[in-house]
Amino acid sequence: MGVIHRARNKWRRYAIEHWGGQHFLLDAPHAYVSFTFDDFPRTAYTVGGRILREHGVRGTYFVSSALLGGPSPSGAIATAAEVAQVVEDGHEIGCHTREHLDGTRATPEAFERSIRANNDALAEVIPGMELDVFAFPLEGPTLQVKRAVGPHFRASRGGGQTFNAGRIDLHLLKSFFLDYKTRDDMDAIKRVIDESAARRGWLIFSTHDVDPTPSAYGCTPATFERVVALACQSGARVLPMGHVCAELGIAR
Ligand SMILES: [Zn+2]
Prior knowledge:
Elements: H1 3-18, E1 23-26, E2 32-38, H2 42-54, E3 60-63, H3 80-88, E4 92-95, H4 108-125, E5 133-135, H5 143-149, E6 155-160, E7 166-169, E8 173-177, H6 186-198, E9 202-207, H7 221-233, E10 237-238, H8 241-248
Parallel strand pairs: 2-3, 2-9, 2-10, 3-4, 5-6, 6-8, 8-9
Antiparallel strand pairs: 1-7
The structure holds zinc ion (ZN).
C-alpha cells in the first residue's frame, strides 16, 4: 500500500467518523448486544443460529442476494430457501447490497441502485419484507456513500472493534468482529462485553462462518457459544439490530 493510498484512507476514515452521521442519545436502562453475520454463509445459521436459539436469542443476517447459493471465502452461502427459514425462526435479515459493493470504490448512485435491487430480490423470497438495517461490505464507505445509504435504514453498521454508547451514530454503528484477529483473545472479548454493560452501551458482534475450521473471517462454534453465553450473562438485552431500533423508537 503506497503512501498516498494510506493518507487517503486515513482521511476517509476521519471523514466518516466525524461527518454524515445521524446521532442518537443512547440512554436505555440496560445495555444491548446484537449478533450479526455478514454475507450469510450457511454455517452462520446451521451452527451460529442454533447456538443463539439455544440461548433463547436471535441474530441479524446481512444478505447480498447476488451471492445466495454460491461459494465464498467463508464457505457456501445460504440459499433463498434458507433466508426464508431464518426469518421464520425469528431472526432478522439485513441489507448488505445486492452485489456486495465495496464502499471505497462504488459510487453513491451504484449503492442506492444495489440496495433497491437487493430489496426487490429479497421481496420475492419473503413478500412484504422490509430491510431495516444495513452493514457496509468490505472496507466501509466513503463519506458520500455513507450519506447516500443512511436515510434508507434505521441503522447501518461498520466495524471499529468497539461498542456504541452515549451519543451514537446510527449511520455508522461500530461493531466488534469475531475473526482471526480476535477469536482467540477471550479476555479482550470479555472486556468489551463488560465495558459496554457498565456504560449501558450497544455492543454489536459481527462474524461470518461458524465452523470447527473457520475461515479467517469466522470463528469456531466453541468461541461463538462462549461469547453468546457471556453476552447473555452480562445483563444486556440480546436482540437483532432492528429490534433494538424498535425498542429505542428509532425510525428511518
Ligand atoms: Zn460482506
